[in-house]
C-alpha cells in the first residue's frame, strides 16, 4: 500500500478539490481534515461514512483512508508529526495521548459537542485567514490556532465511549470510567472495594455490572488504560523508568517491568528501544494553497 511521508513537524494548508488526490494511503504522520464546504463519503479502515460541512476527521499513521467527493469540496488540512506533540508542553497530556492513539475506532467526526463545533469552525476560519499573514507573524499565530484545535478535539474524543463500551451504557458507567481515568496514577483509589464504595455498589455487583457494560473486567480495563499511558510516556517523554514507576504508583522498576512485560511481552527499556528515532530536522511550518 502506498505510504505518504513528511519530515516537517507541522503543515497547514487549504485545499479545494473535486476528487481526492491521494486514495487508499497510509501516512507516517497525523492528519486532521476539516470540511469547510461540500459533501461526500469518508472511508477509514474499511468503515465508510457520509461527511458534510463542519466534520473533523482524525487520521493516524496506522489508518488507511480516502475521500469520495460529491462535487467540489473545501478542506483545511493539519498535518503534524510525533515530534510536534512531543516537543510541546501540554498541560493535558493524557488527553493529547488519547487523541493520538485511541481514536482510530472512530469512523466519524471527532467533534461531538455542539458548542465545540462552533468553536472549531471559528478556529478553522481563522486558520484559513492566517495563511495570508506575513511569514514573520504567521508561524506563531498558526501554531496557537492548531494547538487550540488539538485540545478541543482531544476533549471530544475523551468523552466518546471506549470501543468496547456498550452503546447503551448508562451515565453511571461513564462516571466510573471518568473516575478510573482521573485516578489512574493512584493505585489505592483503584481498588475494587474503593470504587464500589464511591458509587454505592457492592464489589461483586460492580464487577458484573462493569463486564456487562464493557465486555471486559474492571481490572482488565484499568490495566489496559495504564499500559496505554505508560506506552505514551515511553514514546513522548524522556522520563526514566523509575520516574514512570513513581508516577503510576509502582513500588520500583522491577514491579513496573513485571506489569508491563506481562501485558506487552517486553520490558520498558526494550519497548523504548524499538521505537523509531525521529530524524533531527528543523521545525518547519509549511503553508500552501492548492486548488482543483
UniProtKB/TrEMBL annotation:
Keyword Membrane tagged: no
InterPro entries linked: AraC-bd, Homeodomain-like_sf, HTH-like, HTH_AraC, RmlC-like_jellyroll
Pfam family, one: HTH_18
Keywords: DNA-binding, Transcription, Transcription regulation
KW Lipoprotein (keyword) present: no
Ranges of residues in domain HTH araC/xylS-type: 174-274
Protein name: AraC family transcriptional regulator
Organism: Sphingobacterium tabacisoli
Amino acid at each position: 500500500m502506498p505510504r505518504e511521508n513528511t519530515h516537517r513537524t507541522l503543515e497547514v494548508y487549504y485545499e479545494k478539490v473535486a476528487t481526492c488526490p491521494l486514495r487508499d494511503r497510509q501516512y507516517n504522520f497525523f492528519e486532521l481534515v476539516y470540511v469547510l464546504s461540500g459533501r461526500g463519503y469518508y472511508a477509514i479502515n474499511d468503515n465508510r461514512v457520509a461527511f458534510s460541512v463542519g466534520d473533523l476527521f482524525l487520521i493516524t499513521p496506522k489508518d488507511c483512508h480516502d475521500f469520495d467527493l460529491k462535487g467540489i469540496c473545501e478542506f483545511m488540512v493539519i498535518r503534524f508529526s510525533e515530534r510536534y506533540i512531543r516537543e510541546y508542553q501540554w498541560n493535558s497530556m493524557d488527553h493529547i495521548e488519547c487523541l493520538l492513539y485511541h481514536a482510530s475506532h472512530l469512523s466519524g467526526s471527532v467533534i461531538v459537542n455542539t458548542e465545540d463545533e462552533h468553536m472549531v469552525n471559528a478556529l478553522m476560519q481563522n486558520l484559513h485567514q492566517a495563511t495570508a499573514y506575513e511569514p514573520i507573524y504567521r508561524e506563531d499565530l498558526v501554531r496557537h490556532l492548531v494547538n487550540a484545535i488539538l485540545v478541543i478535539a482531544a476533549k471530544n474524543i475523551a468523552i466518546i465511549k471506549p470501543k468496547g463500551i456498550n452503546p447503551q451504557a448508562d451515565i453511571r458507567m461513564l462516571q466510573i470510567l471518568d473516575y478510573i481515568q482521573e485516578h489512574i496514577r493512584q493505585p489505592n483509589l483503584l481498588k475494587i472495594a474503593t470504587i464500589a464504595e464511591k458509587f454505592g455498589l457492592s464489589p461483586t455487583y460492580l464487577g458484573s455490572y462493569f463486564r456487562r457494560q464493557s465486555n471486559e473486567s474492571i481490572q482488565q480495563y484499568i490495566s489496559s488504560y495504564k499500559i496505554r499511558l505508560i506506552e505514551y510516556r515511553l514514546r513522548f517523554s524522556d522520563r526514566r523508568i523509575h520516574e514512570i514507576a513513581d508516577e503510576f504508583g509502582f513500588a520500583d522498576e522491577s514491579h513496573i517491568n513485571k506489569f508491563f512485560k506481562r501485558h506487552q511481552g517486553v520490558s520498558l527499556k526494550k519497548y523504548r528501544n524499538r521505537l523509531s528515532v525521529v530524524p533531527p530536522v528543523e521545525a518547519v511550518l509549511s503553508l500552501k494553497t492548492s486548488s482543483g
